[in-house]
Amino acid sequence: MSHQRDTAIHLVAGGVAGTAGAVVTCPLEVVKTRLQSSQGLGIPPPPPPPSDSTANARKVCSKVHRHQEAKWGYRRTMGAMFAYSKQADRMLMHIVQNEGPKALFKGLGPNIVGVAPSRAIYFCTYSQAKAILNQNIAPDTPIVHLSAASAAEHLHVTCLNVRTLLQDSRISELCYAIKDLNWDIIGLSETRRATETIEEYEDFILYHSKGSNERNGVGFLIRKSWKRYIVSLNSFSDRVAVLEIKIYQNTLWTIIQIYAPTESYKAEDLDLFYQAVEEALDSTNTKNLILMGDFNAQIGKMRDGEERIFGKYSTGKRSKNRQKLIRLLSRKKPHYYQ
Known about the structure:
Blueprint: H1 2-36, H2 52-62, H3 73-99, H4 108-134, H5 142-152, E1 157-161, H6 168-177, E2 185-189, E3 197-200, E4 204-208, E5 218-223, E6 230-237, E7 240-247, E8 251-259, H7 267-282, E9 289-294, H8 322-329
Parallel strand pairs: 1-2, 8-9
Antiparallel strand pairs: 2-5, 3-4, 4-5, 6-7, 7-8
Helix pairs in contact: 1-3, 1-4, 4-5
């Protein structure tokens, strides 16, 4: 009973804390959004006075590759804070004077709807995990709190068609494009690299399959913090790559990244692709499976008998390539995620 009471307290406290945080920071979010949008362009900051040192600094910065920006992250962040603090103050005063104080809390409702349940679930999961760990190892030790907090977090997985990573500069551009995203694993399509390679960078690991005549190619971008949990990385073709990784409580997950041929390709190319996907699926030894990527097929609206493989929100017409995808998703092997 005491444990259930503690869990309920954490659930409520997490929701209240998330709500309070959303309310307090809402004006800052409004100012930030305005500064990032076209509305913020109405009151630009005054231009800095020209100087030789400024010109030299610009020349030096222009020579730095974007993926190296993390090395100066602290200095760049602090510099941005001082450089734009006056602009933020001006925007804050502009909103209050022209729209009233209530305008600083625009969008608060939807924000609370998202933040409050998220924080409540986090703290509830933390409480439950801590109770379980206290029964198996020394109670209330730092390792218990650390493990419980880790269990409450999520593994963020997504996929992206990068068009090409053929030149090294494209990798720098990719790093710059995702620097503000919350991700742990990104499946990549159309990498177009010449060889199958695992490359280790400062903050992440890049794996890519071998492309075909500077076309196709798939791979993964994996946060460095997950390096020791990687079991294997391999490809079944230049369109199918597989990552096996152990996550919470040593549970094995298989993530398959694909890049399907478009409808302009011949039927035999599509057959070879789905054959490689089938081989990748047959190679898995776990029901924890994520199948993702660029399918290049429009499945359209759900029909009778397809309830097990379709979501209720599917809509539109079916493309020419849809039948093989539907047949793949109809396999008896369980737990497919798209």
